[in-house]
Amino acid sequence: MEVPCVCVPREEGEAARRRLAEDDLIDDDYEIAVEEGALYVPVADPAAVPDDLEIVSRSPSERETQTTPADGLEFAPSYERLGKAALLDEDDLDRAREIADAILESDLPVETVLNKASKVKGETRVRDWELLAGDDTEVRHREYGCEYVLDLAEVYFSPRLATERNRVVQQVSDGERAFDMFAGVGPFVIPVAKRGAAVVGVDLNPDAIEYLRENACRNDVEDHVTAINDDVREVASEYDDWADRIVMNLPHSADDFLESAVRIAADDCVLHYYDIQHEDDPFGPGERAIRDAAEPEYDVTVETRHTVRSYAPHELNVCLDVRLER
Question: CA 264, CA 238: separation in Å to the nearest integer?
Fold first, then answer.
């Protein structure tokens, strides 16, 4: 199986390996190889590799000595990775601690282990965490070439939506004006800005907006990003007819904000509307709500009906990509 590898002269190999390791880019499933004076380092996210490093495709050997958390347990544990943090969702704290110990003893590049201690709650959609290993709940995460710093105890962030975010980002053109109504720490805002768009990100959570500003600087897009700490309904009047693209990723209640979205939309605007609905009719309620808010001022065309993931038994998290044309 061919995988992307960074290729550097052998004498530069250790320096390159350290750079890649610091950004958590090395694919630990494969061995680093030396061949004909060159070092080949397998990478997990080639889009995030610095531009001065060459990437080639190779078929490296799989690591045979890598230990996994399952090696130290009698079962295969479930967890998510976010940078160098492992996120658990265990009701039994003793079991959670057992998994945390196994993760730390494995070859995974993990320094922090957190267990979910509550559901997402409140207007800012944060949750409580039990810190099982590490110093605090702040993590650094890389996604499709962008770097984010965030505190999981203070802001909402879902690594599961990385592929969906990239699907939207790939639709953005240089010179667009984009508006994220519920921006968080910037997982839509930052990559959209890197595509050359001017982006406004609004969020009620002041901590999220502070991280959004920091992340804009980390990714060298601060000149393209306006970060606003407010209820987007209070901000909409300042951006009448402004946006070529609007992201509405608040799936439980995005319909409450459609009047503001229509106000912000320019003459030709694409709306990415996220919803959670029963599997029997996952797209109908959202489409009807958008039409009720936008027609007859706009012609409404649903360009994509996309299922993001299963959310709960018989419930789907979906996205409608909708074009509004005045």
Answer: 8
Distance CA 113, CA 300 (A): 46
Domain-wise residue ranges, the chain: 3-58, 69-136, 158-325
Please give the backbone phi and psi of residue 58, each rounded to the nearest 5 degrees, phi first: -140, 170
pTM: 0.80
Q: Mean pLDDT, consecutive 10-residue segments, the chain of 326 residues?
A: 90 85 82 89 88 90 79 89 93 94 91 93 88 94 91 92 93 97 97 97 97 97 98 96 97 95 98 96 97 97 95 94 98
User: Are 79 and 133 a contacting pair, CB within 8 Å?
Assistant: no
Residues 6 or more apart whose Cβ sits within 8 Å of residue 264: 179, 181, 236, 239, 240, 241, 242, 243, 246
- What class, spelled out in words, does domain 158-325 have in CATH? alpha beta
> 69-136 maps to which CATH number?
3.30.300.110
